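Try it yourself: sequence plus aspartic acid, in.
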Amino acid sequence: MASAPVILANAEIRDEFIADGMQRLRRGASAGDVAESIACAVEDDPDEHTVGYSGWPNILGEVELDASFMDGATLRAGAVAALKGFRHPISVARQVMLRLPHVLLAGEGAARFAIEIGAERRDMLSPEAQAAWQQRIAAVVEDEEDDAITLTVRALRERRGSDTMNVIVRDAAGNICSAVSTSGIAWKYPGRVGDSPIIGAGNYCDNRYGAATCMGLGEAAMRIGAAVQAVMLMRLGWSLEAAGCEVVRQLSELLGESTAENHMSRADWVRILVMDAAGNVGAFATRLGLRYKVQTADDSYPLTREVVCPA
Ligand code: ASP
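Structure, out:
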């Protein structure tokens, strides 16, 4: 089925990465290749502190990366969690999908797989991210005997901005692919895995109904299976707007009843990007003021829009 290409992305992605992806779609590139290449560009961007190189480290000062990739034509998916020391987690995630009879590899197994496929190694900790971590640790250490649990709980009382890479691409053949890549929450406990590599929580994609990806507090998106819920509501005939608003209402309830003691609060938020099977797009969030980007084949550059925050 011929269709008009469209790219839906989070607002923190540079315009040129999205515009370059659209250029490639116009020339016939596949949704999967374009989603991967946009994600790789963001992973290399040193100014992007929640994705790839220069991502914020965990409480021990190590950069642990999560990524997932889903193909809406086949429902095949691949993901890596808590991966250390590789330049492009999104490419490793896509290769998990293509080469293994598995969906998700974590930690040492993910690193082993990355080595076996010849993925490029890189020290992902930038001097800037290291300095920010040192500053945060200095602010929360009270006793040299403090363990990682104590330090994580204290460090997370103040959140760093989230800007996980979310991209949903629909190509000229009507195929949709979604890619998510992140360093997760800054100063997280080692091994903490968020929603981004969990298919159904932070990423879901099905050509027949649409796709959704999440950014923000992963613990909330995981607890309600946010991405798959949005797509399943569209499968049941809900409009994109109704589906996005319903998922956000559930997330708001969850965040609203949480307390600082259990590490979630009203200051936390989630945003979900949604595309329907026809390529219509929208974004919904538990708080106002967040934005997203969309580019169709007719636009030379992406347009930035405000998310909908349902009452
Ligand atoms: N969703 C990501 C996570 O919880 C964080 C983010 O969006 O920055 O790992």
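One thing you can check immediately is this: The domain at 6-306 is CATH 3.60.20.30 (Glutamine Phosphoribosylpyrophosphate, subunit 1, domain 1).
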